[in-house]
Structures are given as C-alpha cells and as structure tokens.
Amino acid sequence: MFPFLFVVLLSLSWRTNASALPVQDFLHCLSLRSQNSSIAKLVYTQNNSSYSSVLKSTAQNFRFTTPSTPTPLAIVTPLHASHIQAAVYCCRKHGLQVRTRSGGHDFEGLSYTSAYKVPFVVIDLVNLRSVRVNVEKATAWVESGATVGELYDKIVRKSKTLGFPAGICPTLGVGGHLSGGGYGLLFRKYGLGADNVIDARLIDVKGRILDKKSMGEDLFWAIRGGGGGTFGIVLAWKLKLVAVPANVTVFTVRKTLEQNATKLVHRWQSIAHKFPKEIEDEEKMTIQASFTSVFLGSIEELIPLMEEKFPELGLVKEDCLEMSWAESNLYSFLYVLRSPSETLLNRNQKSSISKTFFKAKSDFVKQPIPESAFEGLWSKFYEDEAKSASMLFVGFGGKMDEILETEYPYPHRAGNLYTILYTVDWEEKENINSEKFMSWMRRVYNYMTPYVSKSPREAYINYRDLDIGTNKINNSKRSYAKARVWGVKYFKNNFNRLVKVKTIVDPQNFFRHEQSIPPLLLLWKRSDLKNHLSS
Questions:
Q1: Which cofactors, by name (predicted)?
Q2: What pTM value is reported for the model?
Q3: Residues 51, 463, 480, 490: which is the catalytic one?
Q4: In which band, very low, low, confident or very high, does the pLDDT at 1 lie, cut at 50, 70 and 90?
Q5: Is residue 460 annotated as part of the catalytic site, yes or no?
C-alpha cells in the first residue's frame, strides 16, 4: 500500500543595455557552433515576444514568476543533442551559468531562475520528450523533457500489465524527477524511479555524449538520485518497467477529528511501513484525515488484509473501486474517478505544488509521533495562513528497507517509518503578503523538530528547500563546507561520494546552482582534502 498521509487544512535580438554584450556574444557563438541555422528559431531572448510565455510555460511555483525574479539572458529549446552541446560550449566560453529545465517542478525554481542574480541561460528540454516502450524486454527509453504523465500514457497504450515506479503528478518532468530519486505508487514494491534506471545518455561539461559504459560506474551512480543540474545534462533514460496487475484497487476513507482522526493517524504511523509491498497508502486532513490507498490486487484480497492490519479504519467493500494502474495515479493525484487517459498528457494541471504560489519542506520520521504532538500540530492548521496548507505522510518499508542507503545517492531507506511533505499555497492577490505564509511554514517545521530525524535532520532533494542551506556564489575553498550543511541532509554519507564524482567530472564547477554538489578545488592541500572527505 502506498502509505501516504495528507493533512490538508485546506530571433535573436536583445535590448541595448549593460547585458547586451554577453547575450550577443552567446548568440553569435551558437550560430557558429550549430551545424545549421535552425537553432536561431529555438532561442528566445528578452526582446522576443514569446520570451515571457516560454519562460512561464512550465514554471510550476509562481513565487518565481514575479517581476522581481531574476530571469535568463536567453532560453534555448533544443530539438537535438547538438543544440545542447552548442549551448553548453557557448555558456562555458562566455562565462554564463546554465539552468536545465525538464518539467519546471523544482520547488525553489532553480531550473529556470537564480537566487544569485548572475547571468544565466535556461536550456529547456520541452522538445526532447520522446518515449519508446519495448514490451517484450519490459524497458523504455524516455527523453528528459517528457513528463511522467506522457511516460505512463505510452506505457499503458502498449501494455496493461507494465508500469513504472515514478510519481503521481503527471506534469513532473522525467529528467528532474529521476535525478532526485523519484517515488510514487509503486515504490514500496519496486523502489524509486531512479532505482530502476538501467542506462542513460548524458552530455558532460566537455560536450561529450556518454552512456552507462562510457561514463563509468561512479557517474552513473551519481546521476540516479544525486540531484539535477550538477553532473551534466541527461538527454534520456533507459528504464526497467515493472509488472502491475491489469486492475488495482483504490479507496479513500475520510475521518474528522471528532471521528478519532488523530488516533487513526497515530495508529497508521506505527503500521504503514509494515503493510505488504502491494499496498500503497495515502491520507489527508481538513482537520480531517483522508486515507487513500492503492492496492496491487482485487477488492476481495484487500478487505481481509485491511481487517487484519488496520481494523480501526473500518474499511468496507463499498469504499473501494477497481481501475487500471494508470487511472490509479490520476485518482491519487486529482481525487477524481476514472479521469480520461488524456489527462496524463495535460501539462497544465494545478495542485498545491504546481501552477500556484507555494512553499514546501520535508522531513523523515523514525519513531512514532505522540498523539499529544499531533493535537498541538492541528491547532496551527486553524490559523489564517493555513487555509490551503497540507501535510503528506508517505509510509516506507517494503522494498525501501531492502536497498542499502549507499546503493544509490538517495539514502533514506531502512529505519524510516514515513516521510512528510509540508506545503502551503496562496493566491496571486495574496502574494504581496507571501512572507506570512512562509513564516507559518517555518513555524510548523520548527514545531516538528523534536519528532523527526536528527543529526542530520534529513530532507528529500526533490522537495528542494533553500532554507536548509545554499552554496556560495563563487567557487572558493569554503564551497565544500557550505554545501555540506545542506548536502548531508539530502544525501547523508553519500554526499562525500557525490563530491568525489563531481571533482572528477566537472572540476571547474561549470554545472552549478544554489544547491548543486561542489567539487573539491585544487587549492585544497592533499591532507585537508582527505580530512574533509573522511569527516
């Protein structure tokens, strides 16, 4: 079951200014490096009438679409790998940073903006979105610009009994999602999306196209969960597809506080990680808890299982529905019945973490939280700022307990009962007071400190949070120390291995952003280097 718990209290011109020279140099370089003139039609500068719409097209967090948000000198929308190679070369030559966007779901907008106000170019992979499914071999090649919904749609059109363990939000870009790990309805059965990547094609800092064999074991390890925007630009991923039944069972049971929701949540956290791998579970609160689950089996199999494992919920046959695996993803995301498959292809779905103004944070829980702590938490959801706030509890266990935390960069495996995603969103007219919502989120996060993981307080890289630390703007001897503050929270001891890989493949730190893995600079003494990597 997917033990989730939601708590919702519910062209190429440029204006003449100081920036004209770098962008004109960049554009001239592109024209020289590109093998034909087609690249000119794929580049948008701020004088282009389509620039704003292209920039905002897949910007999911509207906090980073305001007039004060730093914007790129240019947006490149490549059709071929050669266009990316040219853009990387020209950005390096002219000292421009690169931001790579697949679906635009970076919670802090780092795939299309910068907190540092440095000159940068966005490489938007929206045109690189092909999906090729091989049913006989149970594999798929998917380009990084495809969405999870597009991937699922292609799979389900080819087979009703194959799936892939990625997220439930159909607008997630495959590139960013897999770069950070990626969990969804099947992760207790099959692990993360990144755990099921068996090959990839990556453009490195030198412009070379590398596959699993040519990039080597360490780099291939790093790109499967080590975070996007650090090691290069992944063009495409080869995925191992997994078996799913033709029909799965879903249910949603809602309980108010007056119906003992707090006791049910308290009970849930002690058993969710022990459910069979076939059960994927989810819950939600409006000061009401909504327990939503997907079971890889029939209603007849699920009911006695729930009576044994979680009788307090009171699940009955009438609460349950059977549907395809693809439909169950939409049900879990949109809470509507039997959405048409075309919904998977809609890139403009709105939720609490897409196409809205929001702030999010994450936590991992290793010991059950006392009922009294939940009661203190609920009161915060009655505050004005919390009218569209939510908490999503995702139960672990199953396959996640079987994978060593060093096997992939994503380290949050055995020992975790569940993870928490906190979100609060607000309307455009309220954005002038956005800080009050951000402050509310931080108060809730601080309140939870005694009840979540410690030393470090862990976080999930795909739920990026700049509050936990950022890199220095420029390369310096302190870059490693600054990055380690946030790095061990996302990656635990895997952070040092990621640093080693970065130092080998991109020693000059070309691919970088506010939370990218830094290289160890050559100015470190050998003894200092050894001490820092072993600490």
A1: FAD
A2: 0.93
A3: 463
A4: very low
A5: no
